[in-house]
Amino acid sequence: MKPAVFTPQEPIERWVARVVRDDIRRLQPYSVAESSGMIKLDAMENPHELPPALRAQLGEIASAAPLNRYPDPAAVALKAALRAYMQVPDAMEIVLGNGSDEIIQLLALGCARPGGTMLGVEPSFSMYPLIARVCGLQFVGVPLCADFSLDADAMVAAIERHRPALVFLAYPNNPTGNLFDAAAIEHIVRAAPGLVVIDEAYHPFAQVSFMARLQEFPNLVLMRTLSKLGLAGLRLGLLIANPAWTVQFDKLRLPYNVNVLSQAVATRVLQSAHVLAAQAAAIRAERSRLAARLQGMAGVQVYPSQANFLLLRVAAAAATYDSLKASGILVRNLAGGHPALADCLRVTVGTTAENDAFLASLAASLRLSSHA
Ligand SMILES: *Cc1c(COP(=O)(O)O)cnc(C)c1O
């Protein structure tokens, strides 16, 4: 007997439109530029590899890992290693995420009451508004001042008006690279009726933190990640907060969100914290050198950065981006996004050789355009 031919009642596009949420269909997919063979200065990755001896040990750990078993859902060993490494206060608890992107999602999901609001600043990390909307929260972005500092009065006014369930502040901020004034943040924490999340993704390069101050404010929580430190491929981020908060968000976490290999490898790498510390120090030193060289270039404005990237303004960002790309260097073109970032590029601090290649290509591109 021949199987009956299935005849759909409608074209598949119409079917998708009927089933999938309208707002999801309207979303632009998060796009990552193709980078094979390029000098990759677009994603704030650590350009340094781990030492060969440590990599060999990680190979042994991976080969011995029980891949047939589910991971430890409580990740006891990894949490203990993170606690020691990050000096998490004893009174605080940790929730692990598959990157801190997942932590943002847990926070948004857990707080998304109908009509609720997430508040942030603009320009800042693009995941905050994206995740807010997908989780059903309205996103309110308060503009930063012209020098990218916090407008504390505008923030407090917006907090009073919108009563946000969540306020997100990246410290240092991405893509501007600066640290907000701690007193202004404290002011916002005191004014907020909900949670204030300080996202310390760039802590290794700024070396200042609200960690020791978590106990002062019941509504203050922190996010950290191992991504910018040098383990972006493991996907490991964390929420550090009073257990009264973490017990709630931990219920939303999928039980095995941090896999066996990530847990075992991260735990071992954290035992060699000196390696990560030395790499972060090298990146900070390169940041200073790169910033000084860029400051000496006509036609380039460099903003102060406490992160592992620099924000630049040039005369024609799109042309400069294309010209860098043609010479094999990938940076991030921020023009076309927020108006405050017109003609801005963001460049991750690479190795000395990568940064020199970037500087040479940038100089060549600026020379060409000034003769055009
Ligand atoms: C890169 C970045 C993150 C995301 O880090 P993952 O842990 O890799 O998901 C979070 N916040 C800010 C501000 C970032 O720039």
Describe the structure.
The chain is of the alpha/beta class and 372 residues long. The chain folds into 2 domains: 33-46 and 274-371, Aspartate Aminotransferase, domain 1 (Alpha-Beta Complex); 63-272, 3-Layer(aba) Sandwich (Aspartate Aminotransferase, domain 2). The chain has 15 helices and 13 strands. The protein has helices at 12-19, 22-26, 52-64, 76-86, 100-111, 127-134, 152-162, 182-191, 203-206, 227-231, 243-252, 260-271, 273-295, 317-326, 352-371; strands at 39-40, 93-97, 117-122, 138-143, 166-170, 195-199, 220-225, 237-241, 301-302, 309-313, 329-330, 332-333, 344-348. The strands form 3 sheets. A 7-stranded mixed beta sheet has the order 2-8-7-6-5-3-4, sandwiched between helices. The protein has a 4-stranded antiparallel beta sheet with strand order 9-10-13-12. Strand 5, helix 8 and strand 6 form a beta-alpha-beta unit. Helix 3 packs antiparallel against helix 12 and helix 14 packs across helix 15 (352-371). It is globular, with a radius of gyration of 22 Å. 39% of the residues are buried.
Percentage of residues assigned to helices = 40-55%
Structural class call reads alpha/beta
List the bound ligands.
pyridoxal-5'-phosphate
Fourth-level CATH superfamily of the largest domain: Type I PLP-dependent aspartate aminotransferase-like (Major domain)
Do you know the CATH topology of the largest domain? Aspartate Aminotransferase, domain 2
Count of extended strands = 13
**Main sheet characteristics:** 7 strands, mixed
**CATH architecture group name of the largest domain:** 3-Layer(aba) Sandwich
Can you identify the CATH class of the largest domain? Answer: Alpha Beta
Low-confidence regions: none
